[in-house]
Amino acid sequence: MGVKVQRVNPLRVRDSAIDFFWRMRAWPFATLEEYARCWDWRYTAIPEGEPIAWIALDGERIVGHVACNVRNFVLNGRAVRAAIPGNFLVDPAYRNTIIGAQLAGTPMKLTQKGETDIFIGYGNQIAHKLALGLGCRELGPMRPFIDVRRPGPALGRRIPGGALLAPVATGALATLRALTGRRRASPPPGLSVRRLAAPELGAIDRSSWSVPPGLSWRGTSAYLARRFLECPIREYRADAIVDAASGAAEAIVISEGRGRFNVIFVLANVARVSEVQAIELVATANPEIELVLVPLLPGTRLARDFAHSAYLERSRANSDTVLQNTTWSALWKPTHPAAEEFAAVDAWNVWYGWNSH
What we know:
The protein is α+β, with helices and mostly antiparallel strands. The protein folds into two domains: 3-141, Aminopeptidase (3-Layer(aba) Sandwich); 143-325, Aminopeptidase (3-Layer(aba) Sandwich). Helix content is 32%, strand content 29%. 40% of the residues are buried.
């Protein structure tokens, strides 16, 4: 009969799909129960709407899978539905067939048929080459923008007695910033930081927030709580930047890690506080933070803002393995009413949290 590809609601093929991922040992979990917990969270927390997937079937056996998470964005006041792929996997026995290309192209067809406005892809080099071959525009890899807050602990871990070199390292970094015209952001007065539990995050009303120009995510706060703070496989944290007088939240910072503070997503009322200022407030309020790391696409508005602050851009070779091996791409119809605005990629506000991890 051959292999056929069909569109499904992944929740309706849950058991057989979980068995496929377990058979492929696709995720770093030790038990089938952990696979099931991860699957359930992915397909109830990451999509903003009904989840979509395509499976490749050889008879009744799943041999390939790709998901598409439709997400809500805004572009200069225009609502935008974006198709973002995830969980692309093909059985090794079928990887030298056309199954991979067929599956990789299915989320893009949502955009080509007008079901979504834009496709935003990210993937390893194999998936990226497939995306480019199917007409996507290359956006490039993210790079880490870093702010070294306390060099002493890291030096101490690498070199015996290295913590004693902290004043020298701090002075060298200050000199480098001065020579390159960089300085840490100065947040506006009257703002404080508050750690959020999931119900608190989900209750934040952002309807009156000013959104920066360019493509930005515009989903709900409840979505952020469900996706990040209720994640069963990673420990994320959420901090709110709060106006001291009114008690209203003016920004949200999603992150993971303590000494190494990895920023995943920032949403800000940019009329009150910028994304860079929001992170500076959180870092200042948490003295245990040694290093702030923000993955960004070079050349975008956000990357420019962070480069003008205290952040230094590390090369791709000095990125972690995920950033080194992951490249972003996009596709939109040239006849779309917002095609010219989509093409202004330098104005996009791309955060690492846009992906489907």
